[in-house]
């Protein structure tokens, strides 16, 4: 076992690397702030409960986008498709318009979904829990739209990958 370095910065890097060994999908978490689309890429998405239908995401406390999504009645989660690596980078970028050239659908309640995704979940915030330097957001799923013909984008060791069959 590798012991976590004593230096805080190094320990954080070591943890980042360790957590990156767990493969995830990438989710676009988006909404309409008035007439302005807002959103961010997250890979901390997890399914939580069937009854009630709950999922979770973890949001960094310093996120500038989350406070804008946090006040919306609905938030759209789009599980990105294998061809949406560029969109993932765009939705995490600190500069420029995150929605430039992005095709999306918005609902009257403020949820925003990106086209070309593998799954859309229309969600309402159910709870916010303490999670260290992140906040754990529990979201109640109100509606689902599945696009089974679109394979998901995979994120592993800071790289974007596609699924393949296990041998
Ligand atoms: C693949 C990927 C996964 C990410 N996952 C998360 C996440 O789970 N939680 C989070 O707070 N930020 C995550 N981010 C970072 C956000 O997308 C975004 O860069 C960050 O919130 C800073 O932007 P903001 O200040 O507009 O929120 C991720 C970025 C990438 C590229």
UniProtKB/TrEMBL annotation:
The keyword Ion transport does not apply. One of its GO terms (molecular function) is FMN binding. Pfam families: Flavin_Reduct. InterPro entries: Flavin_Rdtase-like_dom (IPR002563), NADH-dep_flavin_reductase (IPR050268), Split_barrel_FMN-bd (IPR012349). SMART domains: Flavin_Reduct. Residues 19-162 form the Flavin reductase like domain. The keyword Oxidoreductase applies. Keywords: Oxidoreductase. Coiled coil: none annotated. Belongs to the non-flavoprotein flavin reductase family. This is Oxidoreductase. It comes from Devosia insulae DS-56.
